[in-house]
Structure formats: structure tokens, C-alpha cells
Amino acid sequence: MRFGIKTLDEAEVRGKTVLCRVDINQPVDRAKGTLKSINRIQACVPTVRELSDRGAKVVLMAHQGSDIEYKNFYTTKPHAAVLQQLLGREVKWIDDVCGPAAREAIRALKDGEILLLDNVRFVSEEQTLFEMKLCLTHEQQAKTLLVEKLAPLADLYVCDAFAAAHRDQPSLCGFEQVLPSYMGRLFEKEYCTVSQVMEAPVRPCVFVLGGAKISDAFLMMNTVLSRGVADKILTGGLVGNIFLTALGKEIGSGSVNFILKSNYGEYIEKAKELYAQYGEKIVLPVDLAWVEEGQRREAALGQVPGDITSLDVGSKTAEMYRQEILSAKTVFVNGPMGVFEQAPSELGTKAVWQALADTEGFTVLGGGDSITATEKYGLASQMGYICTGGGALIRFLTGEELPVVKALRHGAELCK
Ligand code: 3PG
Prior knowledge:
CATH topology of the largest domain: Rossmann fold
Strand content: 15-25%
CATH class of the largest domain: Alpha Beta
Strand order of the largest sheet: 5-6-4-1-7-8
Bound molecules: 3-phosphoglyceric acid
Radius of gyration: 22 Å
Helix content: 40-55%
Number of helices: 17
Largest sheet: 6 strands, parallel
CATH superfamily of the largest domain: Phosphoglycerate kinase, N-terminal domain
């Protein structure tokens, strides 16, 4: 038992049907019907292999998110093929989630066999819009179609989906109400690593916050600053631009319009408040970069032309952040410094990522863009810990109890 949650060490799984929720949500190439990345599938292999080796009938549930406003959900069929290859053993797949065909396939499983169900989000109760609109309690989630149809076929439930631990959906929080529940190996590793770093970070502890996911970033800053976890926060991307705007700095009308168009105007006020309280810990860019006719341009703050859209931090900022990272003992990273996907605006992200690889401090990265940048620069093996979760890691860092952690604690009570 760790953190009030049972681990697989305590589970007797031989001959049992185990419902295992994994997060293998990956970017998909729809035209080719293939996955653009497989890091999350690789990460759940130890749990799946262990359950199968220990003689469980393994039923995997997973979602494959959508890139367009929660529409166009995609099948998990390609994931089954990748998992089968990584495991070197058969992974059955069925184009059903909890209907008669899925239930029949579950009943037919033999000890050690593995079955991946189709995308759980084909069931509307699993969709994030549904979650946000209806706010079902965990007890109510236990009465949803998915749980009512699948739980009677299973002996126990395992959650290995730390990357989805911030979601409050039946496949993640409903089964723990009715089945003895455990966390999988990946969940255990991720939760332990981020908890330890958060509880007692080796100092100085520096946060690098960039990217465009603003609401969670601001919540998280409040927590890590007020609790004294972060000694410094280095800002870039949209986070940096919002702070600069809050302090009345010229960042170019295109940058400001982008903030307003994205409805992030309210964060300018929040940035003012945070800066007033913790200004000495919040480090802002000293120069910015933009792209003109395909060429990178830079200017120090105070000399930024009024009509540009900033796409990166400037090279002085990148060097300043590099030095901060090199002297840190713990570094949490979420979000790139700019639009690193295109060459003229990748300098800031590239330099910061190289510093993360070079520092002797322990680095923890999370989030889709952060992982993509790590892969782009080939630095994965030089990072301390790459968390599969983006939203889940940030939500954890905001200090909230994650819904899945709460549910698993409840499910631990049902274990004999
Ligand atoms: C993620 O990618 O953050 C998790 O898989 C959760 O996906 P979602 O944002 O589509 O719920």
C-alpha cells in the first residue's frame, strides 16, 4: 500500500479477470491510420506484461482523444498492433466497448491472454464534455452503462492511467466503487516520483513554464509559490507574454491580440496579482523573437516593434534560463518557450531543453508539447523523469487531490 492505494504486489490475479485502464492516448496520423508516437504504449507495457505473466485475463480499457473539440474520436485498433509488437505476444482487439461482442470476448479470455477494447469514449459517458456538464459523483459513475456492463465480468480493477488521473470519468473512477482496486506499475512510479519531488524538492527548485495551456499553469503557479515549493519560475511562451503584458511591456499587437482572442485576458489581472506577491521569484523574458519573411528577428524588451507577434523568447533570455537551469537541483518543466515546431522560432526551446539535458539537477517533464520537444532534440535519455501526463501532472502540482487517486483510495478499501 502506498499513499493509501493498493499496489500490484498485494493483488492475487492468477485466473482472475482484471479490468485495466491504461492511457495510450497518442497523436494519430489519420490519413495513414497510424500513431505518430508510441511513448505511452511503451510506458504501460510493464503492467500489462506482469498481469499476463501472472496468469490474469487482462482486459484493457483506453481512450484515444480527439484533436478537434472532442469530436472525431479514433479507434484503438492501431494501439493493439503496437502493444502486441512491444509485448511480443498476442493482443486481441474488439471493435466494441461494453456491448454484447465485448462482453463475449471478455468471457472467452484464457489465463494470460490480453484483450484491448475499443475507444471508451465511443460511450458518451466517457467524454470530457459529459464529465464537465454532469459532474457525476463516483457513486453515480458506478451506475453508468460501462461500469454496470463490465464490472460483473471482472474480479478486480487496475488503473495504470496516471496521464488521465485528472479526469473524472467512469472508466477511471467508477469501477473503484464496486471492485477491489489497485494502481498499476506505471501509475505507482509516476505518482511516487512527482509526489516525492513536490514534497521535498532538492533546492534550488526551478519551474519552467511555457506553452499555451494557461489556466492550469496559473493555478499551479499559485500553489507552488504559496507553498514555497518553487524557488524560481522561468516563464516563456504565452505564460511569459501574459506576465509581460501585465507589467505594461510592449510585446507586439499580434501577441496581445492572440491573448485576447483566446479569451486569456483575465489572466493578465491574475499575473499582476501573482507578480505583486511573488515578483522576486517570477523570472520574465528580457528579449523576444518573431519571424519576418521566414527570418528570425529579435529585440530586447523596450525595443520590440509594436506590430509583431512574438513566437519565441530571445537568445539573451535563453542564455539566462540556461544558467538558472544549470544551477538548479530540481527542475519541473511544462510547455515550450515558443513555436519550436518551426526553425526560426525554436532557439529558445532548443536552448532550454539542452540545458535540461546538461544540468546535474533532477528534471521532471510532462505534457505533450514538452515530450514532443524532447523527442525532436533527441534528449529523452538525458532527462531525469518524463511523465506520461501533461494535464494530470499540472493538476497534481496545483495541489488538488486527483479524482483517480481519490477513487483508488476508495477501491483499496474493497480489497480483502
Ligand atoms: C492527456 O493526453 O492529457 C490524457 O490522455 C487525457 O486526455 P484528454 O485530455 O483527451 O482527456
